[in-house]
Design brief:
By secondary structure, this protein is α+β, with helices and mostly antiparallel strands. About 25% of the residues lie in helices and about 35% in strands. Strands 3, 4, 5, 6, 7 and 8 form a six-stranded antiparallel beta sheet that branches. Strands 1-2 form a two-stranded antiparallel ribbon. It is elongated and about 55 Å long.
Length: about 180
């Protein structure tokens, strides 16, 4: 696997997704050039890369709570969570962590593949393995699980996504994600 510096396009994508490009570690990747979508099938079973780290601080957790209406105290009440939570403080919503799959996958995949467009197709399996404490950083490690040619220039791509928590052995979540890639 190669490690490389984020391109200007990736840096702009990082900024839009709330990631500090100075902290970005670049993407690990299978190859050092852009591959056609049709070539993804040659890489089934391989890890395609890992995203940059994203910090899940209390401000982001609160913003997510506001957007979704999920104001459970374990996420937004730092004082109560410090007293009563088994985690010693607030934790990010599982669905906040899950929502990071799209921008982190784009960061990793679009540095290696040049589809005309990509459309979410669904989730096969999602497991929330460990809580993400406020202030921790996460990143998405992506493996190509399956590629199915659907005719024309359409490919149904299944990826295994492991959202790692910096400094911890258990990941925040593991999810099998489907996306339709148009070549």
């Amino acid at each position: 696997m190669l490690r490389e510096k984020p391109t200007p396009q990736t840096r702009r994508s990082l900024v839009r997704s709330g990631v500090d490009p100075v902290e970005a570690e670049g993407c690990h990747a299978m190859a050092d050039s852009i591959m056609p979508v049709g070539d993804l099938a040659k890489h089934v079973g391989e890890e395609i890369g890992a995203s940059s780290w994203t910090t899940l601080d209390q401000a982001r957790i609160n913003e997510f709570a506001h957007c979704t209406g999920d104001h459970q105290w374990i996420h937004v009440d730092a004082e109560r969570a410090a007293r009563e939570s088994p985690f010693g403080g607030t934790v990010a919503h599982g669905f906040l962590t899950l929502s990071l799959i799209a921008p982190t996958a784009f960061e990793v995949l679009l540095t290696r593949i040049a589809p005309k467009s990509v459309v979410n197709y669904g989730l096969e399996k999602v497991r929330f393995v460990a809580p993400v404490r406020s202030g921790k950083r996460v990143r998405n490690r992506i493996k190509i699980a399956a590629v199915e040619h659907k005719g024309g220039r359409r490919y149904l791509v299944t990826t295994e996504n492991t959202m790692e928590i910096e400094g911890e052995t258990k990941p925040a979540l593991i999810a099998s994600v489907l996306a339709m890639f148009m070549a």
